[in-house]
Amino acid sequence: MKTMSCKQLGGACDQTFSANTFEEMASLSKEHGKEMFKKIMLHI
Predict the structure, then answer these.
(1) Whole-angstrom Cα distance, residue 25 to residue 29?
(2) How far is the C-alpha of 44 from the C-alpha of 14, rounded, in Å?
(3) Structure pTM?
(4) Which of 14, 3, 6 is nearest to 33 (CA)?
(5) 5-41 pLDDT tens trace
(6) How far apart are CA 41 and CA 44, in angstroms?
């Protein structure tokens, strides 16, 4: 199992993701990005 941070995957925060494959890691990162975008848009 690999663990990477949002920043390591090109994001802006330090949240970490753990997955067995890069595809799983990318999917977790993508979902996290969507959630962060929604939160930002609610505050504008």
Answers:
(1) 6
(2) 23
(3) 0.80
(4) 6
(5) 999 999 999 999 999 999 999 999 999 999 999 999 9
(6) 5
